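Reopening this one. Same input as before:
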Amino acid sequence: FSAWVAQLLAWDIDVVEAYTAPLALILLIIGLVVMRNHEEVRTTLALSPGLVLGFVPSLFLVLDQPASMRALYWGSAAVIGLAAGIYVRWLAPVIAGSLALMTVLMANLGPLILDLDRWSIFGVLGAALLGIGIRWEQNVVGGKALLLKLAHLR
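Same output, byte for byte:
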């Protein structure tokens, strides 16, 4: 890995993902091997180092330019991670993908929301909270079932 970093430095590569993505991929592969060899290991322990290294270094660059190609690729990786986590029923990719996707969405929608008139923001948020409250009361059983399903993810 040190040779890879030295070569990137020699080529004057300043893209942060070129440095972090290979190591993140290695950590994810190691985590998958550990999970395969030890069934009791949870995904949050095995996959979190690779997922964190894959998403966090680019976070500040994505937040700095939320409408860039990097943000598009980062958000796509988040959707893929979320979908894969849901498909194989693993908690770590679901959490990482959800947080990353929410970050990209809020970075892009936040300025639009702030440009709205103050009263329209209060009205929309109030209506949304009222709808959420009504829906919550109707689906307490569904919420408990969801928490039970999340607790059973590997």
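So the earlier flakiness isn't reproducible anymore. For the record, The chain is about 85% helix and 0% strand.
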